[in-house]
Amino acid sequence: MNHSYFLRSSLVFCLCFSVYSFTAVPPKHKPKTIEQKIDSLMATLSLDDKIGQTAQRGTSSRVKGPLAEALKTAVRNGRVSSVINVVDIDKVNELQRIAVKESPHHIPLIFSRDVIHGFKTIFTIPLGQAATWDAESVEAGARIAANEASASGIRWTFAPMLDIARDARWGRIAESAGEDPYLASVMAKACVNGFQGKDLSSPNSIAACAKHFAGYGAAEGGRDYNTANIPEQLLRDIYLKPFKAAKDAGIATFMTSFNDLNGVPASGNRFLLKTILRNEWKFDGMVVSDWNSVSEMITHGFATDSSQAAEKAVNAGVDMEMASNTYEHHLKELIRDGKVTLAQLNQAVRNVLRLKYRLGLFDHPYTQAPTSPAVLTAANLAAAKKSAAGSLVLLKNSNNILPLTSAVHKIAVIGPLADAPHDQLGTWTFDGESKDTQTPLNAMRQYWGKDNISYAAGLAYSRQHSHAGFADAIAAAKNADAIVFFGGEESILSGEAHSRADLGLPGSQDSLLMELSKTGKPVVLVIMAGRPITLSHVLDKVDAVVMAWHPGTMGGPAIAEVLAGEVNPSGRLPVTWPKTSGQEPLYYNHTNTGRPATKEAYVAIDSIPVGAWQSSLGNTSHYLDAGYLPQYPFGYGLSYTSFTYDDLQVKNSAIPVNGRLRVSAQIANTGKRKGTETVQLYVQQLTGDLVRPVRELKGFKRITLEPGQKQMVEFSIPAAELAYHHQNLQLATDPGKYKVWIGKNAAEGLEGSFVIK
Ligand code: NOJ
Asked: Tens digit of pLDDT for each residue in 165-209?
């Protein structure tokens, strides 16, 4: 190349380049969609890499200490997709660094944890949150839990639990929103919005998980893990409704359940996971198994070995396997043998990767250490206190003994749960700590002054049988103006695997209460428990009863404020309260039967004449010994003020099937204090293609009224909300006659009627 040629060429190049740089429009690159990103990534993954994306590994909840080398190696080799129960920010970031920098495809991990009713700031248990009937405060609680947990690197919680619980013997009723599909659906949406926030990819949003799909709450006999037999109409009309609400609210993940549903374990249940969840509901998020629930299909007798368990689970639509490792060990050979298609595995992996993209993990894999305190802040504690106070249900208040007036100077605080910080946190509180918890004893000492509170537990823990502490408790009671007894269940008596056949107060609590009542001092019973507690032995021995659930970190001050009357109780039961365990399963939205119980037809067991003939007792659906009514109905709860209901107006008493029911009533605060009332709307369809429930909750509104204030409360309910699944499984609203009630609970209310044309 001679010199002049080089100069000429350079000149031409420079000219061309400058012309290009002035005139050419760079091609527009549309940002890739998540699906396109998944396509590109999938194209690079080997079969082993794909199988790695279906694995969740980790440790049991309480293991502390350094990260296991085996876990690090598995992450480094791309054999782990999600990690459960690693919560330390340094360990989270270390594992994430290994995944992002050292694993073959740099795919980030998702860190997960059971953040069920709070992370460090523990809120009242989910059943208590449902008792607030306050979606805003439930959403706020979930948001706080998300903020606190994400500060430690957790981006996925296994909540909300959306199982309908019609049987209080089932220990996990504590984690549920109770028995009603409408209330549970409202709570489901609030939780999803709270956990996931407005933008799932924001670093303080965490993916929520609708669990346990499905039917887990219908465990026969209330015994955890037991078989559930649910006819399809009931499944769709009751049990699946909160799950559908969570799906519609945009929940990111679902978890299968431990139980078999109509004979098919949930983790191998194509009908649930494919027909309903994917095909009908069009869910495009991710499905995880429950802990070992894939391998437990062998024990169920649904799979011969772990290879078949993997085959059944992945073919049913379980995308990620929690804890057990049947996918890791068998998917390769199952695909080779044609028992699982590559397309099926690809689908599972795509669902996993979609979640990771939606969480923004590819862009922001690491957790930034918070610059200001992220947990147990004053605002978080205040929200937990508000939620706990709002959950308190005043069940009995003879002679308005509550609130404790200024005439009550000296209070005897008694009972095994008065100063039991661990127990008041309730079930599923891995990260909440006793040291951060304010007990009722502490709070009452602060409120009433140390010298005015005399404390004697009487029983060291809820199950204790010994009466050794009774004498001190009685002595304390004798020197007081009033007794506040904190009883109920320790947290260990409720939750997973903690079902109880006897729903009474455990240990010698009944006996202690009876002794205390003999002092003649007014007795207030505050129950802390994960479920309704039967009170038949003690109800007439106490003057007031407050259900406080397991109220969490701020339970003490919340209870003290209600006892003192600073907060007017507004909680309402999300579950029917039994008189005796033998009434379970017990729920308000039962069907009528051909022989419904009536007051007239009921002869109590002690009134039956000796030698009476069968026919003299009448034939209706009741128990001779327990009658036919619960202790307290669903929706029940008292206030320190009183509310009256008047002037029910059914605005349109003939409604087209595509129309709306409009109905209103006037609610007045007729007492002397400001108070919050939960106005409930129930409907009954009188005749149907299938027999219909005696009442179904279709709406509620919380209103706060000053003394003397009145408010017209109006509901507008689409007739479509009255649809149910018919014998032919079609969902339809029937023309015909209906009743409607606006009332305080499922057993009261102003009654009206309407027809659908
Ligand atoms: C088993 C429980 O059933 C489930 O609710 C929980 O999320 C998982 N274990 C993970 O701890």
From this structure: 999 999 999 999 999 999 999 999 999 999 999 999 999 999 999
d(CA 216, CA 267): 12
Q: What are phi and psi of 228, to 5 degrees?
A: -120, 125
Give the whole-angstrom CA distance, residue 637 versus residue 643.
Answer: 12
Strands 736-743, 286-288: pairing is: unpaired
Q: Per the structure block, which two tokens stand in for 7?
A: 């100069």
- Secondary structure in 3-state letters for 704-753: EECCCCEEEEEEEEEHHHHCEECCCCCEECCCEEEEEEEECCCCCCEEEE
Count other Cβ atoms within 10 Å, centred on residue 536. Answer: 13
For residue 602, the SS3 value is coil
Distance CA 543, CA 540 (A): 7
Predicted confidence (pLDDT) at residue 283 exceeds the cutoff of 80:
yes
Q: How far is the CA of 159 from the centre of ligand 1 (A)?
A: 9
Q: Which atom of ligand 1 is nearest to the CA of 211?
A: 5
Element (H, E) at 560: helix 555-564
* Residue 731 CB coordination number (10 Å): 12
Residue of higher predicted confidence among 165 and 26: 165
Cα-based distances in Å from 370 to 152, 199, 438: 9, 19, 25
Name residue, tokens 């769709």.
236
Pairing of the two strands 82-84 and 156-157: unpaired
452 class by beta-carbon count within 10 Å (0-12 exposed, 13-18 middle, 19+ buried): middle
pLDDT higher than 90, residue 395? yes
Nearest-CA residue for atom 3 of ligand 1: 290
Range with the lowest mean pLDDT among 8-22, 561-575, 716-730? 8-22
pLDDT at position 25: 56
pLDDT tens digits for 153-165?
999 999 999 999 9
pTM value surpassing 0.85: yes
Q: Can you tell me the distance from the alpha carbon of 408 to that of 448, in angstroms, rounded to the nearest whole number?
A: 10
d(CA 243, CA 273): 12
Token pair in block for residue 220: 């026969």
Kindly write down the DSSP assignment for every residue of 435-496, as one continuous string: GG---HHHHHHHHH-GGGEEEE-SSSSTT----TTHHHHHHHHHTSSEEEEEEE--GGGSST
Across 684-721, b (16+ Cβ under 10 Å) vs e yields: bbeeebeebbbbbbbbbbbeebeeeeebebebebebee
User: What whole-number distance in Å separates Cα of residue 130 and Cα of residue 160?
Assistant: 12
Closest-lying ligand 1 atom to the alpha carbon of residue 85: 11
**Beta pairing, strands 55-58 & 82-84:** parallel
Please give the single-letter amino acid code of residue 678.
T
Ligand 1 pocket check: which of 162, 211, 288, 291 to mutate, most ligand atoms within 8 Å of Cβ? 291
Strand pairing of 731-732 and 696-705? unpaired
156 in contact with ligand 1, CB cutoff 6 A: no
Instruction: Name beta bridge partners: 112.
Output: 84, 156
